[in-house]
Amino acid sequence: MQRIRPFMNTELVKVFTGIRRTGKSIMLELVKEELKSSGISEKNFLCINFEQFSNSQLLDSKNLYEKIVEFRKSTEGKIYLFFDEIQEVENWEKCINSCRIDFDCDIYITGSNAKLLSGELATYLAGRYVEFVIYPFSFAEFFEMCRLKNPNAEKSSCFMQFIKTGGMPFLSNFSGDDSAKNQYLMDVYNSVVLKDVVKRNNIRDVDSLERIVAYAFSNIGHIFSATSLSKYFKSENRKISHDTILNYLKFCSDAFLFYKINRYDLEGKKIVTVNEKYYCADHGFREAVFGKNLQNIDQILENIVCLELLRRNFKVYVGKNGETEIDFIAEKQGKKIYVQVAYFLASEETIKREFSVYDSIKDNYPKYVVSMDDFDFSQNGIIHKNIKDFLLMDF
Q1: Of 11, 7, 4, 5, nearest to 97 (Cα)?
Q2: With 90 as the cut, is the pLDDT of residue 125 above it?
Q3: What is the pLDDT of residues 305-342, one digit of tens each?
Q4: What pLDDT does residue 122 have?
Q5: Nearest to 197 by CA among 134, 257, 121, 135
Q6: Is residue 119 pLDDT above 60, yes or no?
Q7: Taking Cα atoms as reference points, which of 285, 280, 166 lies closest to residue 221?
Q8: In whole angstroms, what is the distance from residue 254 CA to residue 248 CA?
Q9: How do strand 324-332 and strand 335-341 relate by DSSP bridges?
Q10: How far apart are alpha carbons 105 and 45 in whole angstroms?
Q11: What is the 3-state secondary structure of the chain?
Q12: Backbone angles phi, psi at 151, to 5 degrees
């Protein structure tokens, strides 16, 4: 809400994006409540959820525009338009742009696909919209939720639960029932795959898509290329082309199931567009679909840190410095931090390996090594943080 407030009651179209069930509709409700508390009448709100069957006649942009015109005629003063899952409306961009020009209005829309802000919309609304990506709960939010239920909840036990189930907000309704949580996460995952990947992109080979997604889940935080993935499937006697793999991964990224993180070459000072990494929108999906979160905890910790940096509006890259790799380089408004993630710094060899990645980086930006250790291993200006404290700190 702090990020949204400066743009409320302005002509910019406010766009809330993110994977399904992360709370985009709730954000619309919070905006409405804040507008009402400022003295604006609810009579000036037009709210439509385009996934409701009762609104199916409005999935045509012409019909939607006519509905808005009728509402405009029946209302005095500025109107406020709240449109949920706007991507269901054919040619919605033209309708929204016309509203922005024709009426005194304040517009808020949500969508579950990154293509929402590409193509025609970029042409129609260039420079006239602002995007807010709504992520699942951070650990800070998850911990706050735990403390609301049990004021004596300990940070360590909450974090272990967070590692296992992730931060999808609705999970707070299931208490300690892990099977119900897994069922819910599977249902959300299937909805994302079916509605936002298969249906939207007319995919026929659903089996290959599911195999690619499973491979991406199992290789979270590992560098892999479409070529290596194609060879992997060939070894399993399945032929999936290089282009198909790239397209399917892009479709999943467009649906916010995965985030693609490019590599940044520190020596050449350029972004490398091959051998990127993929991280999932919420590691709870990985547990529900693939399992083994606790067995692959190093991957999960890396995923959690990546999403935390994205959530805080950093541009995130995988660092490449010669033959050395740094887990994350994060940049925002001229500010930069480096983050190396480990499970436990259990030996001198591990400590040396994790800290030495910074040996050749001579700038003065903060450099972190993050792990599950409670003991502080900070050295040579490199800051060691327990991951729970890192996720809860201001940076």
Answers
A1: 11
A2: no
A3: 999 999 999 999 999 888 899 999 999 999 999 999 99
A4: 59
A5: 257
A6: no
A7: 280
A8: 10
A9: antiparallel
A10: 10
A11: CCCCHHHCCCCCEEEEECCCCCCHHHHHHHHHHHHHHCCCCHHHEEEEECCCHHHHHHHEHHHHHHHHHHHHHCCCCCEEEEEECHHHCECHHHHHHHHHHHCCEEEEEEECCHHHHCCHHHHHCCCCEEEEECCCCCHHHHHHHHHHHCCCCCHHHHHHHHHHHCCCHHHHHHCCCHHHHHHHHHHHHHHHHHHHHHHHHCCCCHHHHHHHHHHHHHCCCCCCCHHHHHHHHHHCCCCCCHHHHHHHHHHHHHCCCEEEEEEEECCCCEEEEEEEEEEECCHHHHHHHCCCCCCCHHHHHHHHHHHHHHHCCCEEEEEEECCEEEEEEEEECCEEEEEEECCCCCCHHHHHHHHHCCCCCCCCCCEEEEECCCCCCCECCEEEEEHHHHHHCCC
A12: -55, -20
202 alpha carbon, distance to own chain's centre: 23
In one-letter notation, the amino acid at residue 196 is D
Which long-range CB contacts under 8 A does 71-76 form with residues at least 24 apart? 71/46, 72/103, 75/43, 75/44
Q: Side chain identity at 307, as an amino acid letter?
A: L
Gap between the Cα atoms of 83 and 56, Å rounded? 13
CB burial of 317-341 (b: ≥16 within 10 Å; e: otherwise) equals bbbbbeeeebbbbbeeeeebbbbbb
| Angstrom distances, CA of residue 391 to CA of 192, 254, 305, 339 | 27, 26, 7, 12
pLDDT tens per residue, range 264-276: 988 878 888 778 9
- What tens digit of pLDDT does each residue of 292-309 get? 888 999 999 999 999 999
Q: What is the pLDDT of residues 175-196, one digit of tens each?
A: 778 899 999 999 999 999 999 9
Name the CA radius of gyration of the chain, rounded.
23
CA gap 96, 109 in Å, rounded: 9
pLDDT at residue 35 tops 70: yes
- Taking every pair of Cα atoms in the chain, the longest distance, rounded to a whole number of angstroms, is 73
Residue partners of 371: CB distance under 8 A and separation at least 6: 301, 341, 342, 343, 344, 345, 354, 384, 386, 387
Selection from 293, 337, 291 nearest residue 313 by Cα: 337
Return the residue matching tokens 């001229």: 334
Report which residue type is found at 84.
D
Nearest to 252, CA basis, from 90, 92, 20: 20
